Amino acid sequence: MKTEINQENILEINDLRTSFFVGKNEVKAVDGVTFQVPKGKTLGIVGESGSGKSITSLSILRLIDEPGKIVGGSINFKGEDLTKVSMSRMRQIRGNEISMIFQEPMTSLNPVYTIGQQLREAFKIHQGLGKKEGTKRAIEMLELVGIPSPDKRVNQYPFELSGGMRQRVMIAMALACKPELLIADEPTTALDVTIQAQILELIKELQEEIGMSVIMITHDLGVVAETCDYVAVMYAGNIVEYADVETLFEDPKHPYTVGLLNSLPRHDIEQDELIPIKGNVPAPDEMPTGCRFAPRCPHASEICKTHPELTETKDGNDVRCWIYTPDWDKEEVSVYDK
Amino acid sequence: MTQFIIRRLIQLIPVLIGVTILVFSLMHLTPGNPAVIMAGESAPEATVKAIEARLGLDKPIHIQYFNFISNAVQLDFGNSIRDNIPVFDHIKARFFTTLELSVWAIIFGVFFGLLIGIISAVRRYSLLDVSLMVVALFGLSMPNFWLGLMLIQYFALELRIFKPTGWGSLEQNVLPIITLGTASAAIIARMTRSSMLDVIDQDYIRTARAKGVKERVVIFRHALKNALIPVVTIVGIQFGGLLAGAVLTESVFAINGLGRLIIDSILQRDFPVVQGAILVISVSFVLVNLIVDISYRMLNKRVDLN
Q1: Which CDD domains match (chain B) (predicted)?
Q2: Of A177, A210, A237, which residue sits at a domain end?
Q3: Pair (A28, A57) in one structural domain
Q4: Are residues A197 and A230 in the same domain?
């Protein structure tokens, strides 16, 4: 992929596979995901609910709960394979070198501890700071993320803050130790639209200040256009398209990406109507053997019964679709009902 | 916080008035004239009158209640009919035995309940979890007098490690504490487990892990404090129940506690002692609940009990 050529990558994920084991069934939530995050850049991971984007991000920090498990692949972070490091090394990385903010600010802070206590904990674990110094740093962080009167807020409990304020606290906590990589899992989904813009702006500003890389997980292409340098589109546990953000919006290749863009209201081009993608994401136990998007794809044909690989196109997009391979036969009609 | 405690103490006044009215009514709700019951069916009229006068039963009922209250506040519950010793002396001697037994039983219950509950939750759905919960179910379903008898049979009579009766020395105290505390331990264990399981799946636990917090700290600092909130309520109710429910255990182990005093006094129709003892137990129950409310508030800042 082109990012390997001219950029140094902070994170390289290769063929990551994470499954959930229910009884004797293996549900493949993430099935062979490969991508890179260039230093200082923002990678967007886009997809519908159930596409595996959150599981991918939780896998990076090894936060997958039972009965989930990383079953294969590697996660290379600054020369270390995170799937192989010890749990104590993993804890050093968490919150220090790689941080994460979650979708639900209302429930992501511990209700029985003050904002200050929760912020101080990060300083205590990773920098060994005591109560006094930790509190001072906590107040600085709250100020940095734009919380008014931080010296008062630091002694308040999460329930005394609004959703937007709590997400700012989450960001403050995630950035406390100036991580090199921030994983933001739908950081604005639960927030009001006006607050969304503020939070995204804040992440962007702090990114420039600290010089960190960001993985922005979202189902909102508007957020992607606003914040990302590169985009990986996920569908049913696979990456189906990877491109830089301009290429993706101007020249989407995969029928799923095209579908996503068609179902999004846009101001930059003329649209007569929004075209939704037919059908639903297949349930994990009813996954098609070939291309997973084929049952919903307007172009699907016989060859789509075989699983396509992610291949680079001449325009720079990496696409998992037979259409962009020499094997594609234009004349063949769809074998799927449309 | 101080304000909260003061407010709660003031709120106790109507509760206590209610309690005293109920306790006071005991004597008057018993069918027939208490004086006649005390004197016996065939006692001469003069004897009945004398008892009535001594107990103040010849006065109007509100005066009687007022006298009862003003005496009770001074810890004067009258004299026992049996031996004419002040009721308070009877109670004083035994109250501390019962209190001691109940406190140790609740400590036993809380310690083993939390321990088992946490282990079960951390190892959820494992063989260990299932076995511990089955044991807890047994502990919960066993009548405690039966458990007491079995413990006496095995540990006192066969193994001769502990003594079968009495209270005071370690050898005597262990079996009654286990007998009284087992059901509470079982309830607390089950409550702790389900509460912990609830909390462990919460988003803020994931946040803590994502911060690099050690698993031990995640469990004991981040999860347990949240999980304890419902458990505290259960512990409070349990403790109140232990104070009142020590009767059976005291009977099985022939311990001279408040429970046995009440039973003996009821059987002998010693009304002043019954009244006094029940009043003391009720007041203790109310105070325990106050302590529970206070600790509940200290754990959960969101609770505004006003």
Answers
A1: TM_PBP2 (cd06261)
A2: A177
A3: yes
A4: yes
Highest mean pLDDT among A238-242, A294-298, B83-87, B293-297: A238-242
* Cβ atoms B241, B259 nearer than 8 A: no
For residue A34, give its domain range: 2-97+179-274
Q: How far apart (Å, rounded) are the C-alpha atoms in residues A93 and A88? A: 9
pTM of the model: 0.80
CA atoms within 13 A on the CB side of B285: 17
DSSP, collapsed to helix, strand or coil, labels residue B273 as helix
Q: Domain boundary residue among A254, A274, A294?
A: A274
pLDDT tens digits for range A28-77: 889 889 999 999 999 999 988 888 889 999 999 999 988 888 999 999 99
Cβ-nearest to A110 among B201, B222, B302: B222
- The answer to whether residue A337 sits within a structural domain is no
Cβ of residue A21 closer than 8 Å to a chain B Cβ: no
Q: State whether A112 and B299 contact (CB < 8 Å).
A: yes
Spatial contact of A207 and A144, defined as CB atoms under 8 Å apart: no
Helix (H, G, I), strand (E, B) or coil at A184: strand
CB-based contact (8 Å) between B202 and chain A? yes
Do A184 and A267 lie in one domain? The reply is yes
State the Cα angle at A235 between A233 and A238, rounded to 5°. 85
Encode pLDDT of B112-147 as tens digits: 999 999 999 999 889 999 999 999 999 999 988 899
**What does DSSP say about strands A238-244 and A311-312: parallel, antiparallel, or unpaired?**
unpaired
Length of chain A: 338
Tell me how far apart the alpha carbons of residues A166 and A316 are, in angstroms, rounded to a whole number: 39
| Same domain as A267, residue A118 | no
Q: Does B216 touch chain A (CB under 8 A)?
A: no
Domain count within chain A: 2
A75 and A186 in a single domain? The answer is yes
Per DSSP, what are the bridge partners of residue A183? A100, A215
Q: Which of A88, A105, A234 is nearest to A173 (CA)?
A: A105
> What is the rounded distance in angstroms from the CA atom of residue A266 to the CA atom of residue A104?
27
Q: Give the mean model confidence (pLDDT) for residues A304-322.
A: 87
DSSP state of A22: E
- The confidence score (pLDDT) of residue B300 equals 74
The rounded distance, in Å, linking the Cα atoms of B205 and A63 is: 11
CA distance A129 to A141: 14
Judge: B212–A111 Cβ closer than 8 Å, yes or no: no
Q: Verify that A85 and A211 share a domain, yes or no.
A: yes
